[in-house]
């Protein structure tokens, strides 16, 4: 008999035995409350009494699962986030076994877990604020973290990337719940790397007290479903914009490893204009600027979790590196308002290049207990960011044309900026009984900001660049914040209440190397907080929150040396700034129906020593600098709604209306301002035939009150068409950002001495094609 025929004969003889040795364990996973099937429940088979995984799978859309194994005695464990784990011990498997329905019980929800949500809508509200799921908003495809925040209710993003929440620019931005240097450049973080964003409008004592507006916590993807999963995406847009990346994770009952990579090459053009009139000097200034820039970034995020007994040891890491280039030209003309005589004219060209790199590393230990409401978490993390910038400036004085023969001045500037943040933190939750729990924690934060700025001018006599030590500046800022907090929480059938307090000891040092001036501050503050929820019935609840917070001046605000990128409009800091103190109050109502929800919030904020930028004009030059004003107040009304109008149409959005008042009479009577503002963001999705989805996102922000004027209104609309293929594993989309080309930024400042207005427009209408594949 030939070898092949012998092997075939042997296989046919043994195949019944082989088939009989492979047995099937099957069943159905359902919700214990409503008997609905549960998708993606993890089912694992263990040796009886052991921790070694034999095999595992997950339930399908009908809740069904099936596992293949050999005969023996096993333990079956079922896991699903939001539900208590289920274990079936000493299961004898001698034949195919159908376990029937396995019911999972939803974990009891605590005060901060009471949410209003819909599975088809990319955000939900809770007692603290908003939870955003970026992937469910098509407008975020191919974008960055800044694009997500632009589409988030209550949040405004200015043209320079700064964030404000309910009209306040003082926000505490966290990465995975931790302070990080990476938050200094949010445009470095791709949208595809973000799992969730938590917006906490009125944070309790668990969070840092710093931030007038609240807390924005960015949760990066790490992978949780058992097995091997991943995906890749590619976005290509007008002006050869490119964004591509991939991610991967492998999870077992013993460990989880994950990694992601993103490359972004983004180009843009913009224009800016400034008009200023100085009344007493009869000066009229007109400036026109144009800019071209390109940003190339590599972003990596990676980590691992190891489970042993009731312990979890995790490592989370982020690394990025990038290169920016920018070319801008500024045309300036100053005339006499009465005679129209030319007083000053020049062109300033700036060719700028910048390299960035940074990392964030965190080691986290978590201890679980038999009581699932008891938790211990200890973490340590360190982050670093370095920016090295080179500016080569050509100046063409007494002309409006930037030609080689008109070149009569050259400057060069080198900026080496390093940021370091280290945090050690421990948090413990202890349930006293079923209704009462205690939370406590310790945290120490160490930050250092080192900015070394060298400024050179071309000397004709020496035919070389010579440093101007009057402008060069080396500034070192360091602070330490040591904190402890305690929270008492009690839950009941009708009332949930949480009372907390946080103590923070702050030490700040600011050193000017050029003058050897050292500015030190030490202060201790207490920050109480209250959160309460009253459940009217299953659908309706009322909430009340109060917190006292602080907004410490940043390193840039404290640095007194000027930024003279534009020699007629200079920005400088103020080393004598003091922190502002905030009292914030919020009352709200939440209603959650089967296919709709509405949250209504009334909020009030009072600020002592409010930090705001003021503009002064001296000798034809405007100086913008921060100052402590007397007080600031804001109160308003906010609506956040979500609804599935039909099977093919859903809508979500928000409207915020608020009155603001700034009292800067300690600086001057003209620094008193008040006014009404409102903004709205609306997202609507249409399910079309042939598995197409159309999404429209509209945004409007009314003029906003500043100490000396207003920001102008802003509005825009984005549109995205999505097609799903291959059982939803492949998604193709076409997006048009700012369809009507209306997104721009501007405002004015006014005093008894001058009026100044600026407008900025950039190429915001762009088209993007994206492809995403998940496995």
What does this protein look like?
The protein is mainly beta and 775 residues long. It has two domains: 3-104, Immunoglobulin-like (Sandwich); 227-774, Beta Barrel (Maltoporin, Chain A). It has three helices and 46 strands. The strands form six sheets. The chain has a 22-stranded antiparallel beta barrel. It has a six-stranded mixed sheet with strand order 8-9-10-14-15-13, with no helix packed on it. A four-stranded antiparallel sheet has the order 3-2-5-6, with no helix packed on it. Strand 8 (115-116) and strand 9 (123-126) form a beta hairpin. Keywords: Cell outer membrane, Membrane, Receptor, Signal, Transmembrane, Transmembrane beta strand, Transport. It is a multi-pass membrane protein. This is Outer membrane receptor protein.
Identify the notable features of this structure and list them briefly:
775 residues; mainly beta; Immunoglobulin-like; Maltoporin, Chain A; 2 domains; 22-stranded antiparallel beta barrel; 6-stranded mixed sheet; 46 strands; globular; disordered N terminus; OMP_b-brl_3; CarboxyPept-like_regulatory; transmembrane
In short:
Helices cover 4% and strands 66% of the residues. The chain has 775 residues and is mostly beta strands.
Q: Radius of gyration, rounded?
A: 30 Å
| Low-confidence blocks of residues | 1-20, 108-121
Oligomer: single chain
Count of discrete structural domains: 2
Assigned CATH architecture of the largest domain: Beta Barrel
Sheet having the most strands = 22 strands, antiparallel, barrel
Number of strands: 46
Membrane topology: Multi-pass membrane protein
InterPro entries: Beta-barrel_TonB_sf (IPR036942), CarboxyPept-like_regulatory (IPR008969), OMP_b-brl_3 (IPR041700), Plug_dom (IPR012910), Plug_dom_sf (IPR037066), TonB-dep_rcpt-like (IPR039426)
Subcellular location: Cell outer membrane
Protein name: Outer membrane receptor protein
């Amino acid at each position: 008999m030939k070898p092949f025929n012998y092997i075939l004969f042997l296989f046919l003889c043994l195949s019944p035995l082989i088939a009989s040795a492979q047995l099937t364990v099957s069943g159905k996973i359902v919700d214990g409350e409503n008997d609905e099937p549960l998708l993606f429940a993890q089912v694992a088979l263990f040796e009886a009494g052991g921790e070694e995984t034999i095999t595992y799978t997950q339930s399908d859309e009908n809740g069904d699962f099936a596992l293949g194994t050999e005969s023996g005695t096993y333990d079956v464990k079922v896991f699903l986030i939001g539900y208590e784990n289920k274990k079936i011990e000493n299961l004898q498997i001698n034949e195919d076994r159908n376990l029937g329905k396995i019911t999972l019980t939803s974990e009891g929800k605590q005060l901060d877990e009471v949410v209003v949500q819909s599975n088809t809508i990319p955000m939900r509200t809770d007692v603290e604020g908003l939870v955003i799921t970026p992937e469910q908003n098509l407008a975020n495809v191919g974008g960055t973290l800044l694009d997500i925040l632009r589409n988030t209710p209550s949040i405004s993003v200015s043209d320079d990337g700064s964030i404000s929440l309910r009209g306040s620019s003082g926000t505490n931005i966290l990465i995975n719940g931790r302070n990080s240097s990476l938050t200094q450049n949010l445009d470095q973080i791709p949208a595809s790397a973000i799992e969730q964003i938590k917006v906490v409008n009125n944070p309790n004592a668990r969070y840092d007290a710093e931030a007038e507006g609240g807390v924005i916590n960015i949760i990066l993807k790490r992978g949780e479903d058992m097995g091997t999963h991943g995906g890749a995406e590619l976005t290509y847009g007008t002006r050869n914009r490119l964004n591509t990346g991939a991610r991967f994770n492998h999870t077992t009952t013993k460990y989880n490893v994950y990694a992601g990579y993103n490359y972004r090459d983004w180009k843009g053009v913009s224009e800016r204009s400034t008009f200023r009139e100085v009344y007493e000097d009869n000066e009229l200034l007109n400036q026109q600027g144009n800019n071209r820039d390109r940003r190339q970034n590599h972003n990596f995020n990676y980590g691992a979790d190891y489970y042993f007994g009731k312990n979890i040891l995790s490592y989370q890491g982020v690394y990025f590196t990038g290169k920016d280039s920018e070319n801008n030209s500024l045309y300036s003309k100053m005339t006499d308002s009465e005679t129209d005589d030319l007083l000053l004219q020049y062109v300033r060209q700036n060719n700028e290049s910048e390299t960035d790199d940074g990392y964030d590393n965190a080691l986290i230990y978590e201890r679980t207990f038999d009581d699932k409401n008891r938790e211990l978490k200890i973490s340590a993390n360190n982050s670093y960011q370095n920016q090295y910038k080179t500016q080569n400036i050509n100046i063409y004085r007494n002309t409006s044309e930037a030609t080689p023969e008109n070149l009569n001045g050259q400057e060069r500037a080198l900026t080496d900026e390093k940021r370091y943040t280290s945090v050690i933190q421990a948090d413990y939750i202890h349930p006293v009984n079923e209704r009462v729990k205690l939370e406590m924690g310790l945290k120490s934060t160490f930050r250092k900001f080192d900015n070394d700025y060298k400024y050179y001018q071309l000397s004709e006599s020496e035919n070389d660049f010579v440093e101007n030590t009057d402008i060069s500046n080396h500034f070192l800022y360091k602070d330490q914040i040591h904190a402890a907090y305690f929270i008492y929480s009690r839950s009941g059938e009708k009332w949930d209440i949480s009372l907390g307090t946080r103590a923070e000891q702050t030490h700040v040092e600011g050193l000017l190397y050029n003058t050897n001036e050292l500015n030190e501050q030490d202060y201790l503050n207490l920050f109480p907080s209250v959160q309460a929820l009253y459940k009217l019935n299953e659908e309706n609840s009322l909430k009340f929150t109060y917190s006292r917070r602080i907004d410490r001046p940043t390193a840039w605000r404290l640095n007194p040396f000027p930024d003279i990128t534009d020699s007629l409009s200079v920005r400088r800091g103020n080393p004598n700034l003091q922190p502002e103190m905030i009292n914030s109050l919020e009352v709200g109502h939440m209603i959650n129906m089967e296919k709709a929800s509405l949250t209504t919030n009334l909020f009030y904020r009072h600020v002592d020593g409010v930090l705001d930028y003021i503009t002064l004009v001296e000798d034809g030059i405007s100086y913008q600098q921060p100052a402590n004003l007397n007080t600031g107040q804001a109160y308003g009304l906010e609506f956040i709604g979500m609804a599935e109008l039909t099977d093919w149409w859903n809508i979500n959005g928000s409207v915020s209306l608020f009155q603001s008042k700034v009292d800067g009479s300690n600086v001057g009577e003209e620094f008193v301002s008040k006014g009404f503002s409102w903004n709205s963001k609306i997202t609507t999705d249409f399910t079309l035939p042939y598995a197409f989805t159309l999404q429209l996102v509209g945004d409007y922000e009314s003029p906003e009150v500043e100490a000396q004027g207003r920001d102008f209104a802003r509005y825009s609309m984005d549109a995205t068409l999505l097609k799903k293929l291959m059982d939803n594993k492949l998604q193709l989309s076409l997006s048009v950002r700012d369809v009507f080309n209306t997104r721009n930024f501007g405002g004015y400042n006014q005093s008894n001495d001058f009026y100044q207005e600026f407008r900025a427009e950039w190429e915001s209408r762009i088209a993007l094609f994206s492809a995403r594949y998940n496995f």
